[in-house]
Amino acid sequence: MTPGGETFSEPLLGWRLWHVRPHADGYRLESFTRHHVSWPAQRRLEAGCPVHGREAPSGAHECGIYAFRTRELAETLLRRYTGVRQCYASQTAELPPARPGRPLALGTVSLWGRVLVREHGFRAQYAYPYALELLGGDAEIARALRGLYAVDVLER
Amino acid sequence: MQAAMNRRLQTTGNQGANGRFAMEIGEPETEREIEIFPLEEPVPDAVPVEVPAEELEPA
């Protein structure tokens, strides 16, 4: 336990975006802002860092596995990514469409281990997807993700 | 605050991608550390079985 830190036994649930990209063994989740970080199936993703190694997330760096506190914050990043911005101080309830042929996943993620808590989100040591909504995909991709990661996948 | 963040990224040798995401999740100055030791790691060990729609009970 870290000095002054708090200890919990239940994983946190955060919100994330993922790219859904084809690999040799099928579609996989990839980190949204870190390229070529493929999320493993049936085992946790562990944070790594070229500076701090397995000490990630470090308080003196920006390493770790990222997640938002709320769905709304993840949707904001999605709108920014897809170029659909707020207009006239109103925000559409509908999520913007994914780019053609570039499916995305929006969903919850379990976070545990050492977790750094911020105003709008978290940086965690370990993570695994909890439930996904597939954006811009089809039933076949949803079924593949469901089978690979053994999580609920809703096709939108 | 922005200048402090930029200095932080420069001095830690951080690449851009995580830095952009870091902006989204808030200011690092408010960060606090917790530790989570789940009794069971939340990684599924079995593939869920899909139930054909015709086998579901009507609502």
State the assembly state of the protein chains.
Answer: heterodimer
Helix proportion range of chain B: 25-40%
**Mean of the pLDDT scores of chain A?**
86
- Greatest interface: A-B, 54 and 35 residues
Name the overall outline of chain B.
elongated
Number of helical runs of chain A? 2
The averaged pLDDT of chain B comes out at: 59
What are the low-pLDDT stretches of chain A, counting only 5+ consecutive residues below 50?
Answer: 86-90
List the helices and strands of chain B in order: HHE
Order of helices and strands of chain A: EEEEEHEEHE
* Form type of chain A: globular
What is the count of β-strands of chain A? 8
Strand fraction of chain A = 35-45%
Rg of chain B (CA only): 22 Å
Q: Largest sheet of chain A at a glance?
A: 7 strands, mixed
Rounded to the nearest angstrom, the distance between the terminal CA atoms of chain A is 41 Å
What is the strand tally of chain B? 1
Q: Which ranges of chain B are low-confidence, i.e. pLDDT below 50, for 5 or more consecutive residues?
A: 1-16
Helices, strands, pairings?
The complex is a heterodimer of chains A (156) and B (59).
Chain A lengths: L5 E3 L3 E12 L2 E6 L13 E2 L18 E4 L2 H12 L21 E14 L3 E15 L3 H11 L2 E4 L1
Parallel strand pairs in A: 7-8
Antiparallel strand pairs in A: 2-3, 2-6, 4-7, 5-7, 6-7
Chain B lengths: L1 H10 L4 H9 L7 E5 L23
